[in-house]
Specification:
four-stranded antiparallel sheet, alpha+beta, 14 strands, binds iron/sulfur cluster, 355 residues
């Protein structure tokens, strides 16, 4: 992940891009977006022909590849007699490449990197992240994406290589790290992009900015204050009354990182494992503590908390919002709780109350 001083973008023909992606898929454990029975999904790749860069954001984010939904952290050998149990930490970090990450997801991954490196460093995540090559791909929004409202529609860092599909002939590849430069030099160095090709990048961004249908009616820097002033809003009761507490919005989100830790004993009592599994703040038992007390009893309280986690609570510690506008939670919610609509209702209420 060592960032490199900017190297001008390289132009690759489509054939060169294919050869680059094919080499990465052969040499690494590789994942990328595919059409999985009509649903955009990240999948293990065997060929570059499986890749689809033209789809909406994948149903699940790429979080699974860095923070698996279920992971063994420790193994306990209970067969030793004597004073102690033998405890072995488990850290698995195979070299891997994630191809086709969109700017929102690259920005989301950067947030996860900050969280996992803050305080007690999360060795499992960080080793896996260091062993991961990221190849980003530029995109256009669907009707639910709203990254432009949060300033996450571009990726300026957080990738090794970033591919811009040009309307004609080939692609431009931006280089983000030394590892990215080495890979490109090894498999498909192409040629230096000319000015007219680089101009196409800016033209694409203009086209992209004009294509958003979903938008927030406040600036990113206004959102923490808006959410902080929304505690008594009837909007929370309204969406809490229809939320099923399924946790899908947490599950699909690229920036949700809460997990639970538990120990599992083998049936012969000779070994045990310490596991961590994803958790979610919209689940009924997320705040259930010893003695049966639940300090966020209602779904309204839990959704208010989730929205504050995305637009308010992280702003001081990490100097960032924790939503990147991918729209996955809105696409996934079975009762149509839509993050832009809910947030705009809150923005409207708070702005009206301030006169
Ligand atoms: S996906 Fe929808 S119904 Fe499920 S917990 Fe989230 S807001 Fe509630
Ligand atoms: S809160 Fe929703 S829109 Fe924001 S990053 Fe998470 S899934 Fe995407």
């Amino acid at each position: 992940m060592n960032e490199t001083s900017p190297i001008p973008p390289r132009f690759l023909t489509k054939r060169e891009l294919k050869s680059l992606l094919g080499a990465l898929i052969r040499e690494y454990r590789a994942y990328g977006p595919v059409d999985s029975d009509g649903v955009p999904a990240f999948s293990a790749l065997t060929s570059s022909a499986e890749l689809r860069f033209d789809l909406s954001p994948t149903h699940l984010s790429a979080r699974e590849f860095l923070l698996p939904s279920k992971e063994t952290l420790l193994k306990f050998d209970l067969t030793e007699s004597g004073p102690g149990v033998v405890i072995t930490p488990v850290v698995e970090a195979q070299p891997q490449v994630i191809i086709g990450l969109k700017p929102c997801d690259i920005n989301g991954m950067a947030l996860m990197d900050s969280v996992m490196a803050a305080g007690v460093r999360d060795v499992n995540y960080l080793k896996r992240r260091a062993a991961t090559i990221i190849v980003g791909v530029e995109c256009l929004p669907d009707e639910t994406c709203f990254c432009a409202s949060l300033g996450t529609e571009r990726a300026e860092s957080g990738f090794d290589l970033f591919v811009h599909l040009l309307p004609t002939r080939g692609v431009l590849v931006r280089i983000g790290t030394e590892a990215g430069a080495k890979i490109l030099k090894k498999y498909a160095w192409g040629r230096k992009a000319v000015k007219a090709e680089i101009v196409k990048l800016e033209e694409h961004y203009e086209l992209k900015l004009g294509a958003f249908k979903a938008r927030l009616n406040a600036l990113p820097e206004e959102l923490p204050g808006v959410l902080a002033a929304s505690d008594e809003s009837p909007v929370w009761q309204s969406i809490g009354s229809i939320c099923t507490g399924c946790g899908a919005c947490n599950h699909v989100c690229p920036t949700c990182y809460c997990f639970d830790v538990s120990d599992e004993l083998s049936s012969d009592l000779k070994s045990a494992e310490r596991l961590r599994v994803w958790d979610g703040c919209t689940l009924d038992d997320f705040t259930l503590v010893a003695g049966g007390h639940n300090f966020r009893k209602s779904r309204a309280e839990r959704l208010r908390h989730r929205f504050n986690r995305k637009f308010n609570y992280g702003s001081e510690r990490f100097d960032s919002l924790f939503c990147v506008g991918c729209g996955r939670c809105s696409r996934t919610c079975l009762v149509d709780i839509n993050i832009t609509e809910v947030t705009n209702a809150i923005i409207k209420e708070v702005k009206e109350s301030r006169g």
